[in-house]
Amino acid sequence: MKKTLIMNGHFISTIKGKSSIKGCMVIEGDLITYIGEETPEPKENYDEIIDGTNKLYMPGLVNTHGHAAMSLLRGYGDDLALQIWLEEKMWPMEAKFTAQDVKWGTSLSILEMMKGGTTTFVDMYDHMNEVAKAVEASGMRGVLARGVIGLCPADVQTAKLIDATEFAKTWHGAANGRITTMMSPHAPYTCPPDYIERIVQAAHDLNLPIHTHMSETSREVQGNVDQYGLRPVAHLEKIGVFSRPTLVAHGVHLTDEEISVLQQYDVRVSHNPGSNLKLASGVARVPELLRAGVKVSLGTDGAASNNNLDMFEEMRLAALIHKGVSGDPLAVPAAEALLLGTKMGAESIWLDNVGLLQPGMKADFIALDIDQPHFLPKTDFVSHVVYSACAKDVVDVCVDGNWIVRKGECLTMDEEKIKREFELCFDRLIG
Amino acid sequence: MKKTLIMNGHFISTIKGKSSIKGCMVIEGDLITYIGEETPEPKENYDEIIDGTNKLYMPGLVNTHGHAAMSLLRGYGDDLALQIWLEEKMWPMEAKFTAQDVKWGTSLSILEMMKGGTTTFVDMYDHMNEVAKAVEASGMRGVLARGVIGLCPADVQTAKLIDATEFAKTWHGAANGRITTMMSPHAPYTCPPDYIERIVQAAHDLNLPIHTHMSETSREVQGNVDQYGLRPVAHLEKIGVFSRPTLVAHGVHLTDEEISVLQQYDVRVSHNPGSNLKLASGVARVPELLRAGVKVSLGTDGAASNNNLDMFEEMRLAALIHKGVSGDPLAVPAAEALLLGTKMGAESIWLDNVGLLQPGMKADFIALDIDQPHFLPKTDFVSHVVYSACAKDVVDVCVDGNWIVRKGECLTMDEEKIKREFELCFDRLIG
């Protein structure tokens, strides 16, 4: 088994206490086996020795909500309200998407994410075989679900459910375990209750979690009350969604009581601050969710509503916006924002062995070039990562013990080909 | 006079209408003399021809509020309320700052700013001769003021005022006009009214504008009412500040009536969204200020409260946060955020010939590398600049017709020496 030593680096190995150490990390196969200030064994015992001078090593970022293929719609229909943006801009264009579009749109997003330090991402979309194949080829970790919209005839509903189930069965545990799957009703407002119940039953049968959008806008909440007499949380609870392990995206409009329900069922919330701000959906009650003990993580959402896939920016937004809006300068401090983007992200998608640089954890980590003005003085690197860094500071990325980015270059995919094919897809879609 | 042609580039030349053109730009001396789709003259007429393929040219960014030397305090005392942060963390450390510290702290910030696409910045600090010398050496444009705090004996007040006046006189119009100066009482809560009046009189005598902090926190507003019986706007109006052209930083806590007063006096507001969020000061009423016709621009503030000097991030925050907080997805659209960071920034500091790529304007512009996933598809570059770009996408920077950054490398200052000297200063300050 290959044994690699990284020396002379700065490492964010634990979030509490001392924010980083200067020292060494050892990787054996797909695992981290040592982290500390001293070199644990003579140098001749290692197959590879890497000089980590002027590099900051930290856990890879975990993006818990997105639609990667939507990079094809980046900048298309900005500055609109969510429902109009969705119904008049996104859905008509997405209706034209073929498997090829999903392949190249997703590949471009994977490139952007991996080069920017994201090592794991959640994807909810259509043509998911293409997404899974791209994840497999990229070397990233993916938690994938065929998102189904149930506003269609019964036979189409059934066909979509079969597609989602087949996908989930086929790919769960694939790519050396780098791919896991979920079942995903798109949202309570796009799926009739009986259809959601069938999806939940399928998730029970397959022993898989559920991922859905929930309580993203006040209009959605009101619509749910109008249609079903319940707010989305009570509605989803009633039809049994929370009987499965569940990850909801957004959770912007929540009452204290709803937060308490989410905590009771251990429902995890993917906070998407960039997307929620851009679509004017509002500001999620993240400090309250965290205080209640709900697992919160961070997602970029699709590039059409963000418009990049920079998880450093989501950590920074999470650290900044809740301070500004609540008036509490201690809301979501830097160390907590970093946890949301790493360890809590991993836990939110049922990955207990990634998101932290510790012996026994998977070797999913990234290195940032800290020989730059915005990383000086070399004091609190947790602060610098959250308040000062960006995706483009990332130079090296390792997932499952394999390097997928070195010196800023992607080692696993053909970047030029992806950009070219992406532009051809876009030209055809817009034409 | 040197004549340069840039061909095959994308250019953001006007903010309204078509968001960018593909074509050419001509620079003669320190001016832009042509921009358009066709090459205006045969190629042999140019001294230099630059291939702009895969580059997006746009006006250099204008940072209208900051304290560059505070990069020495980046990450020092995060996650605290403004007054505690200021009184218990910043001021005791700043009291130790020597001219050398200001020299190297400022130089590091200038490096970060120029490499990140900022071509003009406002600085309010002490030891301003060092700041002006660094601006001169860097090739950037600076609007500089010796910020004075009047909480001191009369003789010290007088000495500071003389220092500020001498500085403003000496440097106004220096470095081929790249440096202009202002007079700067630090804030209504740090300067007694009679002292502010003396500073205003000096500004009258020198025919210079005023720059001050104002209405940054609700605590400051309440303190002003408690001490002087007036909110800060009425207080500054009463003691004659607005009789001079004035730029105020922050302006977070403003009533409708105060906004109207600012509009009447044509007082300009530097909006610092990152700093205001981080210090939990609140969210400025930017949509209302803009609707009232107040000139709003963007500032990073010092690195201690931001914590980087990335003006792309300030544009993005301005475009995002006002949507999320107001619930209006049309608040501060991308084109408006870009104006705040460029043309309106320049106008806010009385520079009428920078901030726009148009014939007759100063050749202050930057180029971004757009051959990257987050700039695809190549549709709306104004959207991509505001919602997707970051400082590190900048590859070339030109100010006053001179290249100061090419291919990401600073041409005018010794980056390695600056980083080294900066760290020595920090070690001494913290030791």
Automatic annotation (TrEMBL), chains A, B:
Pfam families to which the protein is assigned, alphabetical: Amidohydro_1
Gene (name only): mtaD
Organism, scientific name: Paenibacillus silvestris
SUPFAM superfamilies on file: Composite domain of metallo-dependent hydrolases, Metallo-dependent hydrolases
Protein's name according to its UniProt entry: 5-methylthioadenosine/S-adenosylhomocysteine deaminase
Cofactor(s) annotated in UniProt: Zn(2+)
GO molecular function: 5'-methylthioadenosine deaminase activity; metal ion binding; S-adenosylhomocysteine deaminase activity
Residue numbers binding Zn(2+): 65, 67, 213, 301
PANTHER family with a match to the protein in the record: AMIDOHYDROLASE-RELATED DOMAIN-CONTAINING PROTEIN, AMINOHYDROLASE SSNA-RELATED
